[in-house]
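hi support,

uploading two proteins for the ticket. first:
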Amino acid sequence: MIDNEKTAFAFTFGQEGDETVSLDPDDKGNWSLGEVGQGTLIGTKFGVSAPVLISWYQQNRLGTVTPSVMANLTQDVADAIIGTKFWNAMNCPNLPSGVDLSVNDHGFNAGNGVSVRLLQQIAGAAADGNCGRLTLAAVGAFSTVTYGQAHGFSRTALEAVQAALGLEADGYWGPLTQAAIMATPQGSALGLCAALYDAQLADYVSIGLPKYIHGWSNRCLARLKAAVALATTPTPSATSN
């Protein structure tokens, strides 16, 4: 497991909480058919929803998922699920540092297709929910300054980027911030992390579930801070010379 994978998984499972099984009947992820009141109330553990665990069991021919199976889910299996069905499925190993964590955690929380489409919309790729060659090319060509001039960033997103660059975190999209972004190799990754925060938060708000929006908003902000920290962390190859 590479360092970014470890960091991304630790962040996600840290956000999901302890080993307690969630049986909230208002959460569609706790139901076997993925809709409130539809199927069996199986629950969620380590953030692994009932439909995701069912899909994993079907894929690996492991049998039927029951509430007892969910209750006995281990961290090792949860690691395998997030690695296969989210991290690898969304091509996170080929995304820039920080962007990988952001896309992975949002996909785990909101669905792969949703997370990848937001990335594609920001990068200017066709929003088909598949993070393939064309999407990676668009991500590689992304310009934070060009995007910022055209669309802007929220104050919260800019403050996180400015803090990561050692600037005064005033949330102002001014020449000093733009120059600092252009001067760092991580400039495009930081811009993508900022834009993803804005898009992911807007997506949460659009769902319209007041019961969950406070927790989602807090997770979105924590995700932004973790992503920009990872984006600006030197890689082993950069520190070995």
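and the second one:
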Amino acid sequence: MKPIDTKAKFISMRAEGLSYTAIAEKLDIAKSTCYQWEKQFIKEINRSKRDQLRELYNTYGMARTARIKQLGKVNKQINKELENIDLKGMRPETLLALHLKYCDALKAEYLELTESEPLQAVNAEKILDALAELHSRAQNGNITPGQLNNELLTLKSIARVFETSELEKKIEAIEQTLKSRK
């Protein structure tokens, strides 16, 4: 039986997108063990992937809640200044333009609140749906170019991990078939 810390390392490495071959070499285990553990620990791997994505979102300012809070804070300060301003000494159109800009930015952050679904296994159809939804939001002007770029990079990373995982499964199946023929 393999130590628990080896299994924990496997989960972490798999969530990072490492191949079975790389993991097997680093942990000194068989690739077939990797395949079995993938099935056994899929929920933990997905949870770890989700945690890593959240960390990336937070690191690169992609967390919608953080952006909304920051925009709201600045807008609140602008509103306070608008209430206390002596319009004789300042150009009102300057402050009004800034106020409208922040209101538009807040509107762009609006997200329809729906019941969230638990993270499920990724498949090609889900990736295509996410890309189509992102494209639609971009076409309708519901997302900034920066948000579009960040989300597109995330989807590309997810697609790359999915593709690698699928290829590894196919290679593993071919290897198993070849072994059984010997």
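thanks. also noticed: DSSP finds eight helices and no strands in the chain.
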